[in-house]
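Service request form, structural biology core

Requester: graduate student, group of Dr. S.
Request type: structure prediction, single chain
Budget code: on file
Notes: please return the result as structure tokens.

Sequence provided:
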Amino acid sequence: MELVRAYSKRPELLDDLDQAARRLARALDADPLGEPVSVRSTGRVGRTWALDDRLDATDVQAIVKKFLAGIPKHQLARQFGISPKSVQRLLRKHGARRSGRA
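Core staff response, request fulfilled:
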């Protein structure tokens, strides 16, 4: 840090680096066992949740069933609180395809 301070011509870059270093230190202090963490721009530290952690088997079945019934992916994503890309990956993983589409 001192090297950056000595050679930096833009102090706002040093402030950004200081903030990032503090967030990283807090994240490492919060989880010393090495669990996956995310440090957002707000400075909050939290665990990165996998899709399997957020949805149980009944939710997955419901997503597949509703998709096959004609509900669009973006509506399913909003309803279950996941991204449309997660819905797409989940449907692909479970082989869900609507009939009659090219």
